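Q: I have two molecules that I believe assemble together. Could you output structure tokens for the complex as a whole instead of separate predictions?
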Amino acid sequence: MSNLATNDDPRDNLFLVAMKSPSFVIGLILTLMFSTGAVVSFFWTPFDVTVLDIANKLKGPSDIHWFGTDHFGRDMFSMILVGARTSIAVAFIAVGIGMVIGVPLGLAAAAKTGSMIDELIMRTNDLVLAFPALLIAILITAVYGASATNAIIAIGIFNIPVFARLTRGAALSLWTREFVLAARVAGKGATRISVEHILPNILNLLIVQSTIQFSLGILAEAGLSYVGLGVQPPLPSWGRMLADAQTMISFAPHMALLPGMAIILTVLGLNLMGDGLRDVFDPKLRRNRT
Amino acid sequence: MRKPSFLVALGTALLLASSLTPAMAAQTDITVGMVLEPPNLDPTAGAAAAIDEVVYSNLFEGLMRFDSTGAVIAGLARSWDISDDGLVYTFHLPSGVTFHDGTTFDSEDVKFSLDRARAEDSTNAKKNIFEGIDTVEAIDPTTVRITLSAPDGLFLWQMAKGDAVIVAPESAADNATNPIGTGPFKFVDWVQGDRVELAKYDGYWGDAVALDSVTFKFISDPTAAFAAMMAQDVDAFPNFPAPETLAQLDADPRFAVVVGATEGETILSTNNQSPPLDDVRVREAIAHAIDRQAIIDGAMFGYGTPIGTHFNPSNPDYIDLKAQSNYDPEKSIALLAEAGVTDLVLQFKLPPPTYARRGGEIIAAQLRAVGIETEITNLEWAQWLDEVYKQKDYDLSIVSHTEPFDIGIYVRDNYYFNYSSDAMEAIMTELNNTTDPAARTALVHKAQQQIADDYVNGFLFQLAKTGVANSKINGLWENSPTQANDMTGVSWSD
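A: Yes, here they are, computed for all two components at once.
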């Protein structure tokens, strides 16, 4: 694959390398499938998910209702589309919160390593990490009420230490490198070095981690909705669809099977994509492959 | 070859286990599932049906009691005489009756209980049923005489209610957490959030009971209830919360499914003072937006009878007023426009039972169709009792009023509907002072009409009693003529 080395555009290069990784391709297809579904649901769904049709409840898949109907006669296909939107929106914002707050914290801690600021940031991180994430999420929603916003905040809080820790670790090793030293000699301050030199070099790590966190966020949203603390009706959520289906699994298995599959495939897709991306970004692994 | 040998071992173990079972004697303990946990265990100081569903007839007894058909039969009073003018009731009590703490029961306890219930500072949820009592006299230890200020044809019926049970002066104050009564079962333990345990009281004065211990287990989640039933963690679930699984349970030879009637009028409770719900046109609009059959089919899988007012359709005095609040979304929209209400958003607070949680989603969708948005909040039972029932901080809710003949709640002061009507007040006062059956029927009709005319609440359906039990259990009530899980006649067959 020597032609890769001669390719002028490094982004093309990376993408082509990535497409050689089967796990990345499968992951990308699955992720694209669900994100397309989510986007489409904004403009079009076969049926309105807030309109009930009790007379047609618990119907199996047919050419009218592709995925069948639930216990209120709602179209399962439409619900899964809108559910994808819910899941992705919650996970996306939650990961966003984690990155926007966590990464600067990590950079600051690395820049002032060993200082009080470093200690304060990292020990607070430890404190948050010490609690089981879902338990605190339940606590937050129990105190402030169950809603999509509170679910996002709860999941977001737990993304902060993950990103802060990752950023600090990676940034610390970069701070000892020559090009950072050169920048310091050139008189750049800690903030400028962090933003101009450190951040671009850890971006690949952050992207890989965010796909993993994204899949965890989708799982967490499904879990919270399953216990009734996430997105509230009438907005569909995969987790709540599963919860509704439980007692009906013996005579309407499609009600549990389809949202279950949706969760599994989305999380699997994101994880495979994250794996593939890690392979692509990791210079050692890349060298082996090319 | 590892797998087959493991299977053989498992098979042998199962065979051994199953061959052991028939050798055992009939079971004498029972675990009964309930959806709602009682907030306390004192039936004389709380309105929640769940209190009576644990203690009625099991732990506490009144002078009279209800049997499984709803008829009033002798309780602690073995016999009674009524004076010709209907004013003086003389009750004859048995001797040798003791409370669970060993103290003796006599006419003084009756006097104490009734005087306590009708006292100025009484916390009894149904204080009004004692209002007609003029004096209570203990003639001798086994005779008590009650004089009424006016004849009351329903007096014995009132005395059978859980609110009129007899308590002891020594223990009455602690009954909320450590109930002491005269019933065949005594209180053992209450693990909050999980279960209440009762055990047979050896010193019981009446007919011996077959069970040695009774555990009431609180499971509000339909899925968990179904799982507990299938795993036989609970032996009986008198009001099973997952109606969709009844067909499956019925087909299972381990279980018997009995669908009976309850006194539960399931209503869309409405806060009549929260604007714009104080406008009768808005309440009428809500009533016409509701498709009752869709709720019964969607939430209860067909179990339930639609109602048009707050009255049990199996009662001979019931009048069918469903047409007055028929499903007519067009009319709803017109009424809302007439009332000048736009962009209405209502707080919709739902307690745990299935009829509320699922019915709430259906009603929310039906209201949305006429332009009323709702914000659904799912509450735990204790939260619901506090926020909705006590503090009246809600617009809409759904709950089943399971007490028999409870139309009187529409004139109760400070009741959570926030409804007050002089017309209704006059009807109910007249009803209380009327003994002639025909005149009473006419007044009961008038009362039903009045609340339907005022569209006080959305009248949805009469709750069905979806009972599931182990097929070896005998003696459970088929219907719920009152709020009770009477375990006194329950036994296991071998």
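A: One point stands out. The two ends of chain A are 6 Å apart (CA to CA).
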